[in-house]
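Hey team,

Filing this mostly as a record. A colleague (T.K.) asked me to run one chain through the structure pipeline before their review meeting, and I want the input and output archived in the tracker in case anyone asks later how it was produced. No errors, nothing strange. Just documentation.

Input sequence:
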Amino acid sequence: MQQSIEHIVSDPNIAFGKPRIAGTRFSVKDVVAHHFYNRIPLETIAVKWKLPLAGVYAAIAYYYDHREEIDKSFAEDDEYIRKMKMSARSILDDPQPIAQPDANRD
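Output structure:
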């Protein structure tokens, strides 16, 4: 039985062309975020999302080979979110006092 050793693939028609685990829509960036930011062990990521363990480890290897590019993508995402929050502020962020009825009004 021959198995593919190509665990990370990219296709412009799938997941916006982001590098992902072969046979899934789970991106390298998803693995990195879950592992490094959410502190989820790699084995847990594989089990929870039904991913091949070799693919999950390959995603981390891919990250280290392309670290600057992927870290830049995270920074761009953070900046986009910051700008969106500033341009579309929620009423919950800066609540205005509720107008009280005029006591002298009959």
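Quick notes for T.K.: The chain has a mean pLDDT of 87. The chain has one domain: 8-87.
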